[in-house]
Amino acid sequence: MSKDLTAALDALTREAAGLTSRADRALPAAKVAPAIPARAGTGKPAASSGAGSIASPLTEASYAARLWHPATTIYSSDGLFSATRTPLKQVTMTDANGATVVFNFAAPP
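Structure (tokenized):
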């Protein structure tokens, strides 16, 4: 049995030494890309519409002006502990230009 294995291994080794039916082929040469001509770039700043921008810093004028979602009670998984939370709904601030900025927050699940 060991002679059969030795003969089979010898046959595989000779085959792996280059005696295969696969033909080696080379890839075609890559085309040379044309050169990009030299030029100077120009750019223009984006036109400002005057809307949609917020000037930093934001300042909250009054904590009392905040709006809150209704209070909800959450419970531990075993029901032994509970906590009441009142999530934030809306905060109104003023930016550096004096414009009013309103932050609206979604109700938590």
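Residues 2-16 form the longest helix (15 residues). The radius of gyration is 38 Å.
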